[in-house]
Amino acid sequence: MKFTAAQIAGILEGEVVGNPEAEVFKLSKIEEGTEGSLTFLANPKYINYIYSTQASVTIVNKTFEPEQEITTTLIKVEDAYKSFSKLLEYYNQVKLMKSGIEQPSVISEGVTYGSDLYLGSFCYVGKNVTIGNNVKIYPNSFIGDNVTIGDNCVFFAGVRIYSETVIGNRCTIHSGTIIGSDGFGFAPQEDGTYVKVPQIGNVIIEDDVEIGACTTVDRATLGSTIIRKGVKLDNHIQVAHNVEIGENTVIAAQTGIAGTTKIGKNCLIGGQVGFAGHLVIGDGVKIQAQSGIGKNLEAGEVVQGSPAFNYGDFAKSFVHFRNLPKIVTDIEELKNKIK
């Protein structure tokens, strides 16, 4: 799909300096620009590239004035970085603008769906599923019985949504993610074996949640596992049964959250963090990567380590960790002098 500089300027409310009919059909970095590409200049470190780029159109700040001859057509805006981000979002919407039901696919009895549904080939939709407007479900996805999906959701290829799951509006779930699989519940027996505890709860995902690829969110044993509105989960995260994650909390990849832990809102959690079960994590907590959380955390705490403790104390202690061999040598020398 091709766009002219004038069309792009209209979307961004910008001013064209150069050829308004210059056409672009791809995006590029400014240093890698070629004919037919659109790029942007926001960082002053890259200003030299605007004089050599072969990109057909470049988005720049209104304050930019070239000091040498340029060949690229400029679109001047208030904030080049924000405008380029807006354009990426627009491009993504156009790219994902699909509708219709591809075959082969299965839609079971009792299913209702709104306008502009896209259902890719080899999808299965179970009984009594409710799907809102403008939902995109890409090929090889599974939607179990009695699932509810709100408006403007996107499920990429290979997503699995188990039965009874409730998903709000404007949610994005990436490929390979599984929502609603059984919680990890087994009762030990006297003979050393284990009996599976039935997991009869569900998963509730509120509005504006995005979940990365190959993440798993387990159904509750009883009640619900809940992902509150605005939560962002990275790839390869494990959310166990009956966990609750508060509004607008962001969690990086490879984090594991054991059962029944409650995480507050507006928390920032780094990659490879491990949570023990039945914990309460307050609002606004920040946890550095690779930390192990074995106790409750108060609102606003910043922690690191395994087991995790105050981040400032950890940073000071780490200086001593690195110097530990020298400290031991010094202690041995002092002991010898005392003797």
TrEMBL record:
Task: Give the Pfam families listed for this entry.
Answer: Hexapep (PF00132), LpxD (PF04613)
Catalytic residues of the enzyme: 241 (proton acceptor)
Q: Does Ubl conjugation show up as a keyword for this record?
A: no
Enumerate the UniProt keywords alphabetically.
Acyltransferase, Lipid A biosynthesis, Lipid biosynthesis, Lipid metabolism, Repeat, Transferase
The record's annotation in Gene3D superfamilies points to: Hexapeptide repeat proteins, MurE/MurF, N-terminal domain
Question: Which GO molecular function annotations are given, in alphabetical order?
Answer: N-acyltransferase activity; UDP-3-O-[(3R)-3-hydroxyacyl]-glucosamine N-acyltransferase activity
What pathway is this protein said to act in by its record? Bacterial outer membrane biogenesis; LPS lipid A biosynthesis
Give the EC number: 2.3.1.191
Q: What class of enzyme is it?
A: transferase
- Domain called UDP-3-O-[3-hydroxymyristoyl] glucosamine N-acyltransferase non-repeat region: residue spans: 22-89
The portions of this protein that span the membrane are none
Give the record's GO CC terms: membrane
Which reaction(s) does the protein catalyse, per the Swiss-Prot or TrEMBL entry?
a UDP-3-O-[(3R)-3-hydroxyacyl]-alpha-D-glucosamine + a (3R)-hydroxyacyl-[ACP] = a UDP-2-N,3-O-bis[(3R)-3-hydroxyacyl]-alpha-D-glucosamine + holo-[ACP] + H(+)
Q: Which GO terms describe its biological process?
A: lipid A biosynthetic process
PANTHER family to which the protein is assigned, alphabetical = UDP-3-O-ACYLGLUCOSAMINE N-ACYLTRANSFERASE, UDP-3-O-ACYLGLUCOSAMINE N-ACYLTRANSFERASE 1, MITOCHONDRIAL-RELATED
Please describe the quaternary structure of this protein.
Answer: Homotrimer.
Role: Catalyzes the N-acylation of UDP-3-O-acylglucosamine using 3-hydroxyacyl-ACP as the acyl donor. Is involved in the biosynthesis of lipid A, a phosphorylated glycolipid that anchors the lipopolysaccharide to the outer membrane of the cell.
Q: Tell me which family the UniProt entry assigns to this protein.
A: Belongs to the transferase hexapeptide repeat family. LpxD subfamily.
Q: What is this protein called?
A: UDP-3-O-acylglucosamine N-acyltransferase
Native source organism of the sequence: Flavobacterium aquaticum
